[in-house]
Amino acid sequence: MLSDVTVRPARPAEAEVLTELVMRSKAHWGYSEEFMERCRAELTIHADEVVPARMTVAEAAGRVVAVATLEGEPPEAELGSLFVDPDTIGKGVGRRLLQHMLELARGAGVRTVVLDADPNAEPFYEAMGFVRVGVVPSGSIPGRTLNRYAFDL
41, 48, 82, 91 - which has most CB atoms within 10 Å? Predict the structure, then answer.
């Protein structure tokens, strides 16, 4: 467990740093360079998306180590992303940030949070109480599908 993790709203000026974190996190699972390039456009964070997506980061020792988004309006919102820097995976940062995002959703009047999970992240989301509710097409890879999960608040 990492101690002294701070959760705060992301800043538009951090878009490039956050994109690099997202790409490192995704690549951690052994995806090929070709796969990663095909995902780049979907995973790139633009400064003008930070505020509308309720983008939130976790910091440890002054460094951003995770990022998540909560998109949509009540009664249902989507955890559009949750990425943890590879050197902090398994240290409680993802759990802390996800719990924060669920509280943020609850405070906004959201009843259900949905997400499309990378297959490597499914055990984490299931352990956090998310339930598989369907299958959706990948936004980056034609023919690839992702499992959709939901969490009732």
Answer: 82
Instruction: Output the CA–CA distances (angstroms, integers) from residue 104 to 20, 59, 108, in the order listed.
Output: 25, 17, 6
- 129: phi > 0 → left, psi -120 to 50 → alpha, else beta; which? left
**Cβ burial, residue 77 (10 Å; 0-12/13-18/19+):** buried
Domain 5-112 bears CATH identifier 3.10.129.10? no
Interval 70-84: pLDDT, tens: 999 999 999 999 999
The span from the CA of 120 to the CA of 122, in Å, is 6
Can you tell me the distance from the alpha carbon of 36 to that of 29, in angstroms, rounded to the nearest whole number?
Answer: 11
Whether 85 and 60 have beta carbons less than 8 Å apart is answered as no
Quote the CA–CA distance of 71 and 91 in Å, as a whole number.
Answer: 26
pTM over 0.70: yes
pLDDT in tens, 25-67: 999 999 999 999 999 999 999 999 999 999 999 999 999 999 9
For 47-63, what is the HEC assignment?
HHHCCCCCCEEEEECCE
